[in-house]
Write a structure and sequence with these properties.
Length: 126
């Protein structure tokens, strides 16, 4: 799992921020097999699954969230995301992951993958 820093990318003004997430992730739009937007209320958890066949990117924004994943060696790790602005998370194929909204307010996840993802449930991370 890796966090892709977004500072200095895209643009912002008095209205807020904007950037091209596929471009920043290095993904050709023709290779995208799935795109979805989800909300995450404070305390709610999404994920606790993995996609064995695709890389998935998650743009976390709107409110703080915790991102948890299981590394290839089995170690479980967590990082805070979205408190200082949008964060782009890259999850290699087969990486178990979950997210929890930390509030206040609703966090949002814009997700896309480089193919049509298969989803397998995993032991809960959050």
């Amino acid at each position: 799992m890796k966090l892709l820093p977004l500072a200095g990318r895209g643009w912002s003004d008095e209205r807020g921020w904007a950037f091209r997430p596929l471009h920043e992730a290095g993904v050709e739009p023709a290779r995208v097999g799935d795109v979805h937007l989800a909300s995450l209320e404070p305390g709610a958890v999404r994920g606790n699954h993995r996609h064995p066949n695709v890389t998935e990117w998650l743009l976390v924004f709107g409110a703080p969230a915790t991102v948890a994943w299981r590394a290839p060696d089995g170690a479980e790790e967590q990082v805070g995301a979205g408190a200082e602005g949008p964060v782009l998370v890259e999850l290699p194929p087969g990486t178990p992951h979950a997210l929890r909204g930390e509030g206040p307010g609703t966090a949002y996840l814009l997700s896309w993958a480089d193919g049509e993802p298969e989803t397998e449930k995993v032991a809960p991370l959050l």
